[in-house]
Each structure stands twice: as structure tokens, then as C-alpha cells.
Amino acid sequence: MLRDGGRKIISFPIAGNIVGLRSVLLRTADHSFSALTDGVVNPVEGIHITRCVTEYPRLGAALLWAASRDEAMVVEHLVNIGRRNAIERTAHFFMELAGRLSLIGLGTEAEFKCPLTQFVLADALGLTAIHVNRVLRQLRELKLLTPQQGQSLHSRPGWTSQARRVSGRLFEFSRLASSDGSLTYVSRKH
Q1: Is 175 a domain residue?
Q2: Are 180 and 172 in contact (CB under 8 A)?
Q3: Number of domains in the chain
Q4: Is residue 128 part of a domain?
Q5: Model-level pTM?
Q6: How many CA atoms lie within 13 A of 42 on its CB side?
Q7: CATH code, domain with 58
Q8: Short-list 81, 90, 69, CA closest to 17
Q9: I need a surface site. Which of 54, 132, 144, 181 has the fewest CB within 10 A?
Q10: Residue 70: CB atoms within 10 Å
């Protein structure tokens, strides 16, 4: 939370993610965490993490990989805020979330539960809730994203798998050809 009561959502940790790893080294937290859904949190003291990294170098490498992946996502989110338009930001967010959830079996690249409100999306995407509403409507009109009852999202079959993956996990957008040969605009190629 910011001093004025506002907030900027930096990331959406999902099952299996490690949160607060920076605090082990910095010995202080520069941000807070809040759960939007039920979850289980298992605290681990910094001394145990340090010992595990020392005694089990492969675990240390895995933690470094996870931290690097998280940093890459934050960098991509900065690019979203600074250089992508609202529809590109939103499409990128949902594609990234779909990919992450499908990796752990909590959805597919075409369908996943998404309990995020437009206010939460606005705080994550650097948009107003009204603008998020307009963008979601545009994505629905383009038949790229369909909110369903029970807060799940259905994307056009294959829209995420057709997106190019950059650096092994980041997405790049381009026009996607539909089955009839016409083009459906997702966002421009960078």
C-alpha cells in the first residue's frame, strides 16, 4: 500500500512460488503481500534458506533461477506500463497468467479460473478500472477472451500457444491468423 492508500500490484504469486526471498538478503521488506484467494503459506527463516543453499548447491541454483524468472516478469511488467497500450498490457497479462497456471495444472492456456476483479487488474496494469472494463469488452468483441460464470476465462483456442515465446518464458505478440484465414489483432509485434 502506498502512503495515500493507493496500491500497485507488482506480481501475482501462484501455488509453488517463493515470496519474500529478497528479504533474506536485504533483511527488510520493501513491499507487502496479500492473498486474493485461499492459500497455504509456509514460512521459512532466512538462516534455513542460507544453509540449504550452502549445503545443496542445486537447490541454490533453483532458487536463483526462480528469482531470475520473477525479475524477468517484473521487467516485462515495467515494459507493459511504459511502452504497451492497454490492450497489449491486458493480453500480455492474461497470456502470462494462463501459461503460468497451465504449468502447475491449475488451468490450460485456453481456460483458467481468474478471481481477479477489474479493480485488481487496474492496480496491476496501471490502468483505471473503467479502462480495464473497456479493454475486456474489446477482447470479448474480438472473441479473444470470454469471461464465464464462476470467474473463469476462456481464450480463443490456441491464442496463447500461437504467441511467440521470448527468452524461454516471455511472450511477444503478433497478429494471429484465425481458421478462416482472416487476421485477429492481439497487439503489434515489438
Answers
A1: yes
A2: no
A3: 1
A4: yes
A5: 0.74
A6: 6
A7: 1.10.10.10
A8: 69
A9: 181
A10: 18
Average pLDDT over residues 48-53: 89
Rg (CA), the chain: 18
CA–chain centroid gap for 33, Å, is 15
The Cα 142–Cα 84 span in angstroms is 19
Residue 11 lies in a domain: no
Is the pLDDT reported for residue 65 higher than 50? yes
C-alpha torsion sign, points 90, 67, 16, 33: negative
pLDDT, one tens digit per residue, over 130-179 is: 999 999 888 888 777 777 654 556 555 545 543 333 223 333 332 333 33
Give the whole-angstrom CA distance, residue 136 versus residue 141: 9
Instruction: Report the 3 state secondary structure along the chain.
Output: CCCCCCCCCCCCCCCCCCCCCHHHHHCCCCCCCCCCCCCCCCCCCHHHHHHHHHHCHHHHHHHHHHHHHHHHHHHHHHHHHHHCCHHHHHHHHHHHHHHHHHHCCCECCCEEECCCCHHHHHHHHCCCHHHHHHHHHHHHHCCCEEEECCCEEEECCCCCCCCEEECCCEEECCCEECCCCCEECCCCCC
Beta pairing partners, 119? none
Residue 190 counted as domain residue = no
Q: What are the distances in angstroms from CA 76 to CA 10, 62, 168, 170?
A: 11, 21, 13, 8
Domain carrying residue 108: 22-184
